[in-house]
């Protein structure tokens, strides 16, 4: 299908500076495509920049909350959010509330953060971000352990401002050494 | 006794049985802190209700659990045990219940509760004393433990903490159907991924797919993550560089697969993959795969890596998946992970036929194996790679060992 066409494109891209050529290539493609797809390629850069800004903010809020304001943590989750914690599923605000209450106090250190805007086909137009973190955490009474975590955040309209409110639709956490 | 048994819950309530009016009126003395009584009770349980799940022994002045020890074998399904308000003085009593797979244990109102000033110590001791299956304990219900000497200690959070933390499971699939879809997908995906040419993965990705990868960030030099380092995307370190931040996210399936094809060739330990299903809707399935793989070519050949990868997919065709987002986190595998990986066949250093060795070579091999501690296979590889120059091989070996680049399997004899 399009496989053959990829080679000349990638070769060209390697020869020139990325920024300039990128618009060139997508400009060429847009000639063959409709206006909506041209719009979407411009949007992708914006989506990426936005996702970086929002996920950075979110991560600061989340880990601060889980360490210092645990009682408020469930507010960051959607009503029907799911948490999969080392393979255990916790669904719904009440269960989450109970779970976080029973979890001992924590000291998180996020060492790496990556994010992507989630494709709209998966979310039916509901703006969603994938946020991936890794680092170490020390729970009271236990030794420090490394963890991997990822979230799906979805934008909800806020009555107070034109900025969306981000809520966690799903949360997946695992210790790196969970099997020990 | 019958009236104290609840068949629907498989629960037997022997709370303060000594003062039970029925027994007292018939002059039957059941003092559970006496051996005879306890043994008799266990016998009755064994003969009549061996599938007992829940047993309440509170308020029976129990000061030791030796006589209760038989319960481990005779009432194996016991999951809930209430020992509250007895006279247990030390957590070592719980050693005698070793083997019980309890889900709930109540210990409040026992002298042992008051001994420990540090909550965490207490919990650890109790926990280790029981030797219960780490994966099955859900909670301790000794929420409050009062003694005259110590203030109310908020045990609940602490005790549940340990159990919650230790409660890890393998894969979480929310349904059988989803499990099959995912496993089928992963089987196909990784067989292409490990095949040497990842181009066919184009079929797995959506036109507008996005991919990025990240590695652990530590202040120490993480240089031994080889190829992955230059493309690692840690947005916290790129706040002032939105261009790089954008460049490192591969967009559209052509770019994604082209990039994947540039990553080192791998061999994944499929049997050990763990999957957590994050969430799903009619149009989205998000799941996280963790596991271990080995690099099979390039500068980091034979390095073991561990990974955590999030896939977000939309439905495609016949119960198939089409990936729209893919994020890969790679780190070096720990010794434990390496030891557990690829359990079936022992990895061999080279796939080419082993040439027969001359006598001096065999001697050198034996000496090298002895000095380095590596097994013969790996010693031979090291010597071969260095043209049978003993000193050079030794130098290289020492250097690699110091950098931790030699997998543990090399030392397995």
From TrEMBL, chain A:
Cell compartment(s), UniProt: Nucleus
GO cellular component terms listed in the entry, alphabetical order: nucleus
Protein name (record): Nuclear transport factor 2-like export factor 2
Domain NTF2: 54-175
Swiss-Prot/TrEMBL keywords: Nucleus, Protein transport, Transport
Protein source organism: Cyprinus carpio carpio
GO biological process: nucleocytoplasmic transport; protein transport
Superkingdom classification of source: Eukaryota
PROSITE patterns: NTF2_DOMAIN
Major localization class: nucleus
One Pfam family per UniProt: NTF2
InterPro entries assigned: NTF2, NTF2-like_dom_sf, NTF2_dom, Nuclear_transport_factor_2_euk
From TrEMBL, chain B:
Entry's Gene Ontology BP terms: poly(A)+ mRNA export from nucleus
Domain called NTF2: residue spans: 181-330
CC annotations in GO: nuclear envelope; nucleoplasm
Domain TAP-C: start-end pairs: 359-413
GO molecular function: RNA binding
Cell location: Nucleus
Principal location listed in the UniProt entry: nucleus
Domain of life: Eukaryota
Keywords: Leucine-rich repeat, mRNA transport, Nucleus, Repeat, RNA-binding, Transport
Pfam families noted in UniProt: LRR_NXF1-5, NXF_NTF2, TAP_C
Similarity section: Belongs to the NXF family.
Protein name: Nuclear RNA export factor 1
Organism: Cyprinus carpio (Common carp)
């Amino acid at each position: 299908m399009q496989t053959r066409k990829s080679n000349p494109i990638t070769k060209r891209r390697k020869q020139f500076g990325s920024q300039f050529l990128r618009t060139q290539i997508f400009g060429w493609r847009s000639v063959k495509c409709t206006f909506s797809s041209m719009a979407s390629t411009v949007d992708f850069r914006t989506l990426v920049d936005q996702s970086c800004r929002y996920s950075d903010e979110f991560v600061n809020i989340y880990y601060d909350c889980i360490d210092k304001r645990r009682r408020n943590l469930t507010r960051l989750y959607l009503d029907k959010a799911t948490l999969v914690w080392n393979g255990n599923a916790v669904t719904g605000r009440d269960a989450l509330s109970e779970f976080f209450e029973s979890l001992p106090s924590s000291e998180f250190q996020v060492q790496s953060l990556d994010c992507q805007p989630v494709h709209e086909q998966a979310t039916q137009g509901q703006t969603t971000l994938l946020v991936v973190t890794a680092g170490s955490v020390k729970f009271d009474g236990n030794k420090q352990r490394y963890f991997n975590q990822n979230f799906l955040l979805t934008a909800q309209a806020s009555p107070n401002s034109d900025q969306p409110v981000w809520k966690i639709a799903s949360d997946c956490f695992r210790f790196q050494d969970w099997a020990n | 006794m019958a009236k104290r048994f609840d068949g629907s819950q498989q629960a037997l309530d022997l709370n303060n049985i000594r003062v039970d009016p029925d027994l007292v009126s018939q002059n039957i003395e059941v003092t559970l802190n006496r051996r005879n009584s306890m043994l008799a009770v266990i016998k009755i349980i064994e003969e009549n209700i061996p599938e007992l799940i829940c047993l309440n022994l509170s308020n029976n002045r129990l000061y030791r659990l030796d006589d209760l020890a038989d319960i481990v074998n005779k009432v194996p399904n016991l999951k809930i045990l209430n020992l509250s308000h007895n006279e247990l003085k030390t957590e070592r009593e719980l050693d005698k219940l070793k083997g019980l797979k309890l889900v709930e244990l109540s210990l409040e109102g026992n002298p042992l509760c008051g001994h420990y000033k540090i909550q965490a110590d207490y919990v650890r001791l109790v926990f280790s004393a029981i030797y219960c299956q780490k994966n099955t304990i859900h909670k301790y219900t000794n929420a409050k433990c009062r003694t005259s000497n110590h203030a109310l200690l908020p045990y609940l959070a602490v005790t549940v903490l340990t159990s919650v933390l230790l409660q890890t499971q393998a894969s979480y699939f929310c349904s059988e159907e989803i499990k099959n879809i995912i496993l089928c997908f992963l089987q196909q995906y990784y067989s292409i991924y490990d095949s040497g040419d990842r181009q066919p993965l184009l079929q797995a990705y959506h036109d507008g797919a996005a991919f990025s990868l990240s590695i652990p960030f530590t202040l120490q030099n993480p240089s031994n993550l080889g190829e992955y380092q230059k493309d690692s995307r840690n947005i916290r370190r790129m706040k002032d560089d939105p261009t790089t931040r954008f460049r490192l996210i591969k967009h559209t399936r052509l770019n994604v697969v082209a990039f994947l094809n540039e990553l080192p060739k791998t061999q994944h330990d499929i049997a050990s993959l763990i999957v957590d299903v994050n969430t799903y809707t009619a149009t989205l399935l998000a799941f996280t795969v963790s596991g271990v793989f080995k690099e099979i070519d390039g500068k980091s050949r034979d390095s073991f890596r561990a990974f955590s990868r999030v896939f977000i997919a939309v439905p495609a065709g016949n119960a198939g998946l089409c990936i729209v987002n893919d994020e890969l986190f790679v780190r070096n595998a720990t010794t434990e992970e390496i030891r557990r990986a690829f359990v079936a066949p022992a990895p061999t250093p080279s796939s080419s036929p082993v040439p027969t060795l001359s006598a001096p070579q065999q001697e050198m091999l034996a000496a090298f194996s002895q000095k380095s501690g590596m097994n013969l296979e790996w010693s031979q590889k090291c010597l071969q790679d260095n043209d049978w120059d003993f000193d050079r091989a030794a130098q290289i070996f020492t250097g690699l060992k110091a950098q931790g680049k030699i997998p543990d399997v090399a030392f397995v004899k």
